[in-house]
């Protein structure tokens, strides 16, 4: 039997790709699992797409998180485009540093961002969730992104950080400017970052004189053997907790609800379980939604500090490496029925929150918000249904995050 012709390499980073990247990632896993490509910014980087290689790369100490390790050749050619290289005052946070600084900062931040603090926050998350659903439940229609998935995490993280209620709408506006950016000039994003940076610096300064029970006060108090977070470090950590804490949750809720609306059998099983007052399927279900169509498509930047091989491919010193979490989490070598949504999946070591020392410190909060949001929507709006042609839905095309711009639904008014 003659050999079958090899399928053509798919185009990456197009609008069509953003709408459904999984066929392209399947091609890469099979034909070019560690693939060098030119990103839309003009930077050349390696994409790692298989699960085993992804886990190795995420935990490899030779892959630095510090943009300073990007190759000098890229700088000389003008093909920089690495986030953080021009905003060092905001980038001293857990996603962009290595040990020993990372070890020190994570230890200090962990003292403030404890699982107990997150668990105690559950009633507030439930209250925000119910208030948002109340605002549109009587209409019979809503956009679950703009009216629910976006405001829920921004209000929640503001409360957790200790942002006064009268300032939260400003933070919501600035955060909206950041996620609405889709390309071209970044002026709006730059202004939003500047506003948030200035606000957080001022808030931290004020809280030093009047500490409370909030997370920013906890960051200020955090110490270990006489070490404290500097004001710059505290502001950078508050910024990344704010930004990462809301954009990922927007996409978790939006992508998750979209997946459930497109898989009515799984949605029915979950609603039946919720109707019996059970939580186990909701908990495993959120983990499966993180695997199936998670909010973070690619892990944040890494840079080779020494020659290394990933999946048998040599990566030169200085080269950027991007681990494709979305591809790894649908690798058939690790997950059975990888393209099937199975809310009861028990063997599910997904990489949605990363792996290794940079595993997401906010994972407990994201899980809490995802479970409360999706559980409440399906319980209070039991006949919720998609109110648009799936082909007409727009996706935010970005390098790291992937999520819907809007998610129109209809339901019986309540």
Helical percentage: 40-55%
What Rg, in angstroms, do the CA atoms define?
A: 21 Å
CATH class designation: Mainly Alpha
Alpha-beta classification: alpha+beta
Average pLDDT for all residues = 88
Describe the structure in your own words.
- With 414 residues, this protein is of the alpha+beta class.
- It has one domain (15-410): Orthogonal Bundle (Cytochrome p450).
- The chain has 17 helices and 14 strands.
- The chain has helices at 15-19, 22-31, 51-59, 72-77, 101-112, 115-120, 122-137, 145-149, 151-161, 168-180, 187-208, 215-221, 231-262, 264-275, 280-293, 325-328, 363-380; strands at residues 34-38, 44-48, 63-64, 141-143, 223-224, 227-228, 302-304, 308-310, 313-315, 320-323, 385-386, 395-397, 402-404, 408-410.
- The strands form 5 sheets. A 5-stranded mixed β-sheet has the order 1-2-10-7-3. The protein has a 3-stranded antiparallel β-sheet with strand order 4-14-11.
- Helix 7 (122-137) packs parallel to helix 17 and helix 10 runs antiparallel to helix 11.
- The longest helix has 32 residues, at 231-262.
- The radius of gyration is 21 Å and the shape is globular.
- It starts with 14 loop residues before the first helix and ends with a strand.
Task: Name a few traits of the molecule.
414 residues, alpha+beta, Cytochrome p450, three-stranded antiparallel β-sheet, 17 helices, 14 strands
Please give a quick description of this structure.
The protein has 414 residues and is α+β, with helices and mostly antiparallel strands. It is 49% helix and 10% strand. It has a single domain (15-410), classed as Cytochrome P450 (Cytochrome p450), CATH 1.10.630.
């Amino acid at each position: 039997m003659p050999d079958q012709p090899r399928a053509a390499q798919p185009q990456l980073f197009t609008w069509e790709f953003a709408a459904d990247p999984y066929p392209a990632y399947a091609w890469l896993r099979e034909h070019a699992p560690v693939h060098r490509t030119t990103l839309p910014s003009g930077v050349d980087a390696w994409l790692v797409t298989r699960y085993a290689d992804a886990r190795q790369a995420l935990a490899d100490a030779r892959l630095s998180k510090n943009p300073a390790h990007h190759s000098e050749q890229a700088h000389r050619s003008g093909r920089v485009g690495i986030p953080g290289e021009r905003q060092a005052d905001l980038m001293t946070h857990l996603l962009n540093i290595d040990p020993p600084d990372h070890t020190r900062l994570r230890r200090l931040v962990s003292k403030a961002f404890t699982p107990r603090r997150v668990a105690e926050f559950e009633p507030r998350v439930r209250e925000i969730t119910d208030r948002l659903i109340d605002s549109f439940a009587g209409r019979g229609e809503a956009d679950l992104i703009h009216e629910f998935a976006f405001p829920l995490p921004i209000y929640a993280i503001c409360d957790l950080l200790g942002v006064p209620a009268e300032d939260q709408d400003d933070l919501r506006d600035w955060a909206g400017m950041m996620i609405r950016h889709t390309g071209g000039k970044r002026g709006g994003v730059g202004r939003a970052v500047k506003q948030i940076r200035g606000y957080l610096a001022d808030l931290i300064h004020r809280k030093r004189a009047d500490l409370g029970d909030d997370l920013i006060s906890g960051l200020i108090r955090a110490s270990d053997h006489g070490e404290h977070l500097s004001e710059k470090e505290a502001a950078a950590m508050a910024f990344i907790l704010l930004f990462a804490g809301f954009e990922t949750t927007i996409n978790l809720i939006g992508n998750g609800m979209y997946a459930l609306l497109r898989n009515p059998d799984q949605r029915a099983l979950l609603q039946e379980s919720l109707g019996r007052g059970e939580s186990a399927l909701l908990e495993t279900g959120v983990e499966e939604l993180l695997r199936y169509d998670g909010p973070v498509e690619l892990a944040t930047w890494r840079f080779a500090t020494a020659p290394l091989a990933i999946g048998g491919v040599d990566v030169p010193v200085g080269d950027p490496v991007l681990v494709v979490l979305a591809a790894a989490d649908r690798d058939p070598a690790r997950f059975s029925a990888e393209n099937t949504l199975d809310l009861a999946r028990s063997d599910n070591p997904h990489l949605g929150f990363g792996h290794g020392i940079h595993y997401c410190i906010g994972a407990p909060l994201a899980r809490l918000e995802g479970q409360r949001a999706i559980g409440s929507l399906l319980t209070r709006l039991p006949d919720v249904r998609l109110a648009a042609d799936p082909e007409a839905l727009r996706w935010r095309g970005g390098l790291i995050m992937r999520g819907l711009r809007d998610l129109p639904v209809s339901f019986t008014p309540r």
